[in-house]
Amino acid sequence: MTNYNQIAGQKIARIEALSDGVFAIALTLLVLEIKVPVAEDIKTESELLHSLAPLLPKFLSYFLSFMTMGIFYTGQALQLSYIEKYNRDLNWTTLFFLLIVSLIPFTTAFLGEHISFKLAVGMYWLNILLLGLLLYIHWHCAYTNKFISLEGDALKDIDKAIRNRIIIAQCLYLFGALLCFINTYISIGFIILVQLNYAFAIFSGRIKKKAKA
Questions:
Q1: Is there a domain that residue 177 lies in?
Q2: pLDDT tens-place string over residues 79-129
Q3: What are phi and psi of 115, to 5 degrees?
Q4: Is residue 1 in some structural domain?
């Protein structure tokens, strides 16, 4: 009789559909933490304008988390596009990855409420660290089980690119988190810059252009 653990979790399409759903819900929950100012307390245009000031930290943490989720969604989608087989271990690695994704709305709300506290930045960084760690384990597991649809030099190049991107990004996130001991806004600003670079290849694109020139 075939062992259950050998046949479970082999449908990649199901885990892709679940991932899309979890990311969609988590992205929606992010904006729900931004509450509209109470109209009863506002009598003039000036008061309305001033009522937006307390929301600025929430908008900042919202943008930070939207970028975070966008980057990890893209990273997971990239890995899945090269994985042609799946198993129980990969399935559960992805489920735990989605568990951490679902925590982002909480750590975002916590950061928005306590943006001047180092602990809030530290909790958010821990969220990012766990996401990166599980994404790395996911790829490593698929690679060691030979579930990747590539071979030879192409496989080596893709493997190196994915691993290096995760490792370098996590090092930069750690540096950004440590900046909270100087100022939490500087810390968050640095992390956002890292994310913008990874999303749009701002600095790496310029380096490639200079190399070609």
A1: yes
A2: 999 998 888 889 999 999 999 999 999 999 999 899 999 999 999 999 999
A3: -65, -20
A4: no
